[in-house]
């Protein structure tokens, strides 16, 4: 039961979790937050219009721990939910958490100590321990996230991982000053935010595996691989524009335009081609993307003289996926086109659809 004294206290930390149909993994995720060694937090859990048992699970935990502040409402999407959580948070620090991951007990304590001792840093994440849907070890083959701000900037300019979103703790005022999460970058809203924050504050990761990050077929990064790769490639083009001192034309967009319109949007020839190349590299191993509009982007890339690297293996992969007609179309495009001199590869071509990677 919440008392007047509980309500009057401003916690040191707000934990922000948005959930949509998350009943499968939700309980252990919540339990890992409640078991933190650092206990002075409010726990905002927003149910984004779930149709499963998620609201009941949230209410049950809220009845047992007064730190939990449930928000149960209709579906509005993840970006709207994250911005609502930011607006609702009462603490100066916000820790992100997803409903399918697990925090290690010392996560909050380690990150708060880091931010207290590094006032020039606005964001701190951590390395992750990758697990499968059953909690077993999961190998990504990727490298660990950068540790200091210089390494972040190098990865932004030359390719590489940045932050694992559910491992992040940040200063609320800084994220609000940056405009929060941008609706146009749905499914890669975190990447776009880190790229924007890099010009306002320093970013870092703690070299400890403070979160267990879960991989499974139903997660957003696998279900929306093509849209995520398109958004990531455009986010990097916006970063390149800002990095060069130019205006970011995506800043006030509610929705990203079609790839064919990107040259006009950025006022620069070649942006559309670079984005297609980046998306193509990002979807070669995604069964979902090879079956949706990602395949058409790949074909356009080939027909426009894009690199053929890995494409014959992709044709073989399509046959294994039960897509012989698409495999034949790809083989025909490869046989009748010749790759042109490759344009400079932007960082987006090295960004994967795995938020942890």
Automatic annotation (TrEMBL):
Residues 335-357 are annotated as: Disordered. Pfam families: Glycos_transf_2. InterPro entries: Glyco_trans_2-like, Glycosyltransf_2, Nucleotide-diphossugar_trans. The keyword Transferase applies. Keywords: Glycosyltransferase, Transferase. Residues 14-175 form the Glycosyltransferase 2-like domain. The keyword Isomerase does not apply. One of its GO terms (molecular function) is glycosyltransferase activity. Belongs to the glycosyltransferase 2 family. This is Glycosyltransferase. It comes from Aurantiacibacter spongiae. The lineage of its organism: Bacteria, Pseudomonadati, Pseudomonadota, Alphaproteobacteria, Sphingomonadales.
């Amino acid at each position: 039961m919440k008392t007047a004294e509980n309500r009057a206290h401003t916690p040191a930390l707000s934990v922000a979790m948005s959930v949509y149909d998350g009943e499968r993994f939700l309980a252990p995720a919540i339990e890992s937050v409640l078991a933190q060694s650092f206990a002075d937090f409010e726990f905002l859990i927003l149910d984004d219009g779930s149709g499963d048992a998620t609201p009941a699970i949230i209410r049950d935990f809220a009845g047992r721990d007064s730190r939990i502040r449930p928000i149960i409402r209709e579906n509005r999407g993840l970006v709207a939910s994250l911005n609502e959580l930011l607006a609702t948070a009462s603490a100066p620090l916000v820790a992100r958490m997803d409903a399918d991951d697990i925090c290690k007990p010392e996560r909050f304590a380690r990150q708060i100590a880091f931010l207290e001792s590094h006032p020039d840093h606005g964001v701190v994440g951590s390395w992750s321990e990758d697990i499968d849907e059953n909690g077993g070890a999961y190998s990504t083959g990727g490298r660990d996230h950068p540790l200091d701000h210089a390494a972040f900037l190098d990865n932004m300019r030359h390719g590489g991982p940045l932050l694992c979103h559910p491992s992040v703790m940040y200063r609320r005022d800084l994220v609000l000053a940056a405009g929060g999460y941008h609706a146009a970058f749905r499914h890669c809203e975190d990447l776009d935010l880190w790229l924007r924050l890099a010009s306002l504050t320093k970013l870092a990761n703690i070299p400890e595996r403070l979160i267990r990050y879960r991989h499974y077929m139903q997660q957003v990064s696998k279900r929306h691989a093509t849209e995520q790769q398109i958004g990531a490639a455009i986010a990097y083009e916006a970063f390149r524009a800002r990095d060069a001192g130019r205006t970011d034309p995506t800043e006030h967009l509610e929705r990203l335009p079609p790839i064919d319109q990107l040259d006009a949007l950025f006022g620069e020839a070649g942006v559309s081609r670079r984005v297609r190349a980046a998306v193509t590299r990002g979807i070669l191993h995604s069964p979902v993307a090879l079956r949706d509009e990602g395949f058409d982007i790949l074909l356009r890339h080939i027909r426009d003289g894009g690199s053929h690297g890995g494409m014959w293996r992709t044709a073989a992969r399509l046959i294994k996926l039960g897509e012989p007609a698409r495999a034949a179309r790809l083989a025909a495009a490869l046989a009748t086109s010749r790759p042109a001199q490759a344009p400079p590869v932007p960082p987006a071509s090295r960004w994967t659809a795995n938020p942890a990677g």
